[in-house]
Amino acid sequence: MTSVAVLSHLVIDEVSYPDQRPAAVAVGGAGAYAAVGASLASAAGPPLLVSGVGRADHIFLADWCTRRQISSAGLFPVGEYSPRTRIQYFADGGREEVPVYGLGHFDAHTPLPRHIRVGPECLGGVYLFHNHDLGYWDEVAQFRRTFSGPLLWEVSSDSCRLEHRDAVWDRFQAVDILSVNEAEAFALLGTADLATAIGELRHAGLTVLLRRGANGSLVLNKGEVYAVGTAPTQAQDPTGGGNSYSGAFLAAYAHTGELGCAARTAAAAASVVVAAPGSPEVGATIRQSVEDAATGVSFDRC
After folding, report:
1. Strand 48-53 to strand 11-16: parallel, antiparallel, or no bridges (unpaired)?
2. Do 13 and 87 meet the contact criterion of CB atoms below 8 Å apart?
3. Burial class (CB in 10 A: 0-12, 13-18, 19+), 197
4. Model pLDDT for residues 172-228, shown as the tens digit of each residue
5. Contact 39/47 with Cβ under 8 angstroms?
6. Helix/strand/coil for 252
7. Under CATH, domain 30-73+110-301 is a member of which superfamily?
8. Residues 184, 201 contacting (CB under 8 angstroms)
9. Domain ranges within the chain, ordered by starting residue
C-alpha cells in the first residue's frame, strides 16, 4: 500500500549565490519537499509523487525519488523539459526567482487527480498544493466522491488574499485538512492579529494546520486549539520546511489517525529538512532520528 499521494510540481532549480560558491542544480518545488516529508514520516510504504516532468529529465528525477524512498510511478511526461527556476540569492538575504520556460510551461505540468495511477483503495491520503482555481477544484470534487481518506490542501500564497476568502472557504468542502502559514493566514483573513485568525479558522469546518516557523505550529480541530512545539535543529535553509511539515503530517495522520502523533512527527520532519540546503536522502537511520525527535515535541491544548 502507498502511504499517500503527493500532487504538486517537481522543479529543477538553478541556484546562484552572492559569495564564491559555485552555482548549483537542485530539485525543488512544493511536491519535492512534501514528498520528502511524507517519506520521513512514512510507516506504510513510500509516498507516491505525482507530477508532470520533461522526458529529458525523467531518469534524473526518478533517481532523485529513489534516493529518498519516494515512488516515482506517478511522474508523467509533459514535453521535453521539466519546469526550471533560476534562483539568485543576494548578500542581504533576499532572493529572486525566474521561471526559465515561463508560467504557461509550469502550469502545463500541474498534476491532477486523474494522474494518480493507483486506485483510491491503495491510498492512505492525498496532498494537494494549488490555488483556488475552479477548474482544478471541480476535478478534485469528482475525485472526492471515490476517495474517503484524508485530503490535505496546502494553499498556495497567490490565493491568500482577502478578496479570495470566500472562494477559498468554498473549497474547504472538498478537503479534510488545510495547511497554511501564519503570514498567509493573515493575508487571507485581512488581519495581523493571531487570536482573530485563530477565531475564524477554528470554525472553518475542517482541521487546520497553522504553521508559525520557529514558533512551532497550531492545530485547530473541532473547535479545539493545540500548540505544537519544534524539534531541536540548526536551521540553515527554511526552504521546504512548510511543505515537508504538511507532507509528514498527512503521512503520519493517515497511518495513525492521531493528531498529536501526526503533529509531532511533522515538526520533527521539518526540522530535518531545514537543517541543510536542499532535501535529504531518506533511509532507515534518518527516519529513526525523526521518530526519536518527535517524542520530544510538545503537543498541548491551549
Report:
1. unpaired
2. yes
3. buried
4. 999 999 999 999 999 999 999 999 999 999 889 999 999 999 899 999 999 999 999
5. yes
6. helix
7. Ribokinase (3.40.1190.20)
8. no
9. 30-73+110-301
